[in-house]
Write a structure and sequence with these properties.
By secondary structure, the protein is mainly alpha-helical. It contains 5 helices and 2 strands, in the order H-H-H-E-H-E-H. The longest helix is centred in the first third of the chain and has 25 residues. It is elongated and about 90 Å long. Keywords: Glycoprotein, Membrane, Signal, Signal-anchor, Transferase, Transmembrane, Transmembrane helix.
């Protein structure tokens, strides 16, 4: 009988340890949203910058965009000289968004992506020039993980090098 009680105790301890490991995997750190009941209260949802202990916020956003700024419409002329330049900021979902740009956007002439190839062909309707400048359409033309400064200096020269001088748009 004593041997059986040891097995039951061992099973309970192992179950407890398993539950702790799963909890740490699902909810790492001290800010687990599943365990914080205050997070569901309207006061907590009102101001995301308010600290839990009511101390002044260490981070205050500098750029508050109005609803009009966020909902503005930008006309993109795929037949003209408009060009979308995708600046990939690492660890922000940029790879997924970049793939979405070449695979899922409904345009007059969508990008052509072939199985097994990383780059897609994104030409304007009736032309052999691209409307998208990203690693999924032009490759790493400006270097690996090019930042804003590198793209600003590099994109015009790369795009213009592929056009005849008389066809280059004035910038």
């Amino acid at each position: 009988m004593e041997d059986r009680s040891h097995k039951v105790l061992l099973a309970l301890v192992m179950l407890f340890l398993f539950a702790v490991i799963v909890l740490q995997y699902v909810c790492p750190g001290t800010e687990c949203q599943l365990l914080r009941l205050r997070a569901l209260s309207p006061a907590a949802a009102a101001d995301p910058y308010r600290a839990e202990d009511e101390t002044p916020a260490r981070f205050v956003p500098r750029f508050n965009f109005s609803a009009d700024d966020l909902l503005r419409r930008v006309d993109f002329n795929i037949k003209g000289d408009d060009l979308i330049v995708f600046l990939h900021i690492q660890k922000t979902g940029g790879t997924t968004f970049g793939r979405h740009l070449v695979r899922n956007i409904q345009l007059e002439q969508p990008c052509e992506c072939r199985a097994g190839q990383k780059k897609c062909t994104c030409h304007r309707p009736g032309k052999r020039e691209t409307w998208l400048f990203s690693r999924f359409s032009t490759g790493w033309s400006c270097g690996l993980h090019a930042d804003w400064t590198e793209l600003t200096n590099c994109v015009p020269s790369v795009v213009d090098s592929k056009k005849e001088v008389r066809l280059r748009p004035s910038r």
